[in-house]
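[Meeting: bench + compute handoff]

Bench side (C.D.) handed over the final construct sequence. Compute side (W.E.) agreed to return the predicted structure before the next meeting so the bench team could plan truncations. Sequence as handed over:
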Amino acid sequence: MTSYDYLIIGGGQVADDAARALREHDADGTIGIVSSDEDAPYTRPALTKKLWIDPEFGEDSVPLNTAEDTGADLRVRTVVTAIDRTAKQVELEGGERIDYGKLLLATGSEPRRLDGPEDERIIHFRSFADYRTLRHLMTDGARAVVVGGGYIGAEIAASLSLNGAHVTLVFPDEVLGGSQFPPSIAERYQKLFTDHGVELLPGRRAEMLTVQDDADVGVTLDDGTAVGGDIVVVGLGAEPRLDLARHAGLEVSEGVVVDEHLRTSDPSIWAAGDIIEYPDAILGRTRIEHVDHARESGAAAGRSMAGSEAPYQHTPYFYSMVYGVRWEAVGTLDPSLETLEVHHDTAHSVVYYLEDRGRPVGVLMWQIDGARDAARTVIADAITDRDLLRGSIG
C-alpha cells in the first residue's frame, strides 16, 4: 500500500504552496498530492486575465511545477471518495487506499452550474481545461453570452471583448458591480464595459441553458427572454467542496472548521484555502475565496504540518482587473453599509465600509497601489474618526 508522511487532497494553488512549505521545513518527508483536476497545479487567476491580455504570457507559464520543485508524487484525474480517520487512510475511486501520517484537505470549490443541456460550447468556467476549450472556440467576431457579474463573469467578459468577441453580459444587479461598490464606483466600473462595446443585460438572472433551433447556444432569462450566441460562459461563482470532510465526521459549518494553526477537529488533518472557516486575526471567524488566501493559508498549513507552532495571522486581500483598471480590497464590501468615499482624482479612490457606529469593516482601493497593509490597519484599529480615515490611505 502506498504511504506518505504528508498527503494533500486537491491540486490547486493551496497544494502548491503547502508542498513548498513542507519541503522547506522537512527535507526528507514524503509528500503525495491527489487531484481530481486533469492538470498539475497551476495559477488560476491567469485563466481570466493574463492569458488573454499579455502576449508574453502563454499556456506554458500557467503550470506551477509543483512536483518538479518539491519532489511530491502527484496523481491527477484521481478522486478521493472517503477518509478513514481511524486507519489514517484515504480511499480512491476504484477502491485503492493510501496511508497518511498527516493529511491536508485542499479540495477547493466547484463552479455553480445552470440547468440545461451539455454542449462543448457551454462552459461553466473554472479550470485550465475550461480555458483551453474557450480559447479553442474563440474566433474573431464570435458571439459570447457571459452569465454572472462577479469576478469570473466580469473578467471573462472583459477579456473576450478585448479578443474580438461580441459579448453580452447577463447579471442581476441594476448596475454592474452594484453588489460590491457604492453607486459612484459601480457606474464608473460599468462604463468600462460599455466603452468597450459589451452589451449589458442588468437586473436579469439566467434560468436555463439552451441549444436553440438555429444551432445557437444560449440562456433563458427569468423574464422569459432567450439570449443566444456561439458560446456561453457561466461565471456564477463557486461552492466549497465540503462533502469529503463532512462525511469523514470533521466539524463543518460554513466551511471546514479549523483553528489558528489550520488544524481541523482531527489532530492529524489540516485544511486550507476556499473550504476553511478560520479565525482571522482582524476579521474574526470567516471563510474567504481568493488566491491570496489560498497561497498564504496553504503555506501556513504546510509549515504547521511540518511542526511549526506559528499561527495563521494573514488577513487576505482580494482583487480584480478589467481593461487595465485594478482594484483591491480587504474585508467586507457591502454597499448597503454606510460608506465613506475619498476620491483622490477621477481615477483613484478609496471607499471605507462602516458599521457599528462608524467602525470600518472593509476597504476598497480603486487604482491605489501599495495600501493593503494600511487597509488592514484601518480595520484592525477600528478607526472611526472621519478625518483620520480620509488621510489613512493615499
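W.E. noted at the follow-up: Residues 291-305 form the longest helix (15 residues). C.D. will use this when planning the next construct.
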